Amino acid sequence: MDKEEVPFEEALKQLEAIVSRLERGDLPLEEALSVFEEGVRLTKLCSARLSEAERRVNILTRSVESVSSELEERPFEEEGEEEL
């Protein structure tokens, strides 16, 4: 699986593991830098996915709002009852 194809949830889980490793403070400098770089890459990936999700929600919300404004509210009529 390509690194960019990692699902959001998996990327977030990897990012949490990286933060945990870095917080322990026991990594040698070069390894800590490498892990940090991977964390930055995952952060950008998660941020991009969240931005895309937000964009899609905004589009769907606008779509629902435009459909709602086109609907007309009418009183319920029982069968056989004619409109006055």
What is the helix/strand order?
Answer: HH
Helicity, as a percent range: over 70%
Give me the secondary-structure category.
mainly alpha
| Tally of DSSP helical segments | 2
Query: Main beta sheet: strand number and arrangement?
Result: none
Total strands: the figure is 0
Poorly predicted runs: none
In terms of DSSP E residues, the strand content is under 5%
Average pLDDT value? 87
> What would you report as the Rg, rounded to the nearest angstrom?
25 Å
Shape: rod-shaped
Distance between the termini: 66 Å
What does this protein structure show overall?
The protein has 84 residues and is mainly α. It has helices spanning 8-24, 29-70. Helix 1 packs antiparallel against helix 2. It is rod-shaped and about 85 Å long.
What's this entry about, in short?
It is built from two helices and no strands. Helix 1 runs antiparallel to helix 2. The protein is mostly helical and 84 residues long.
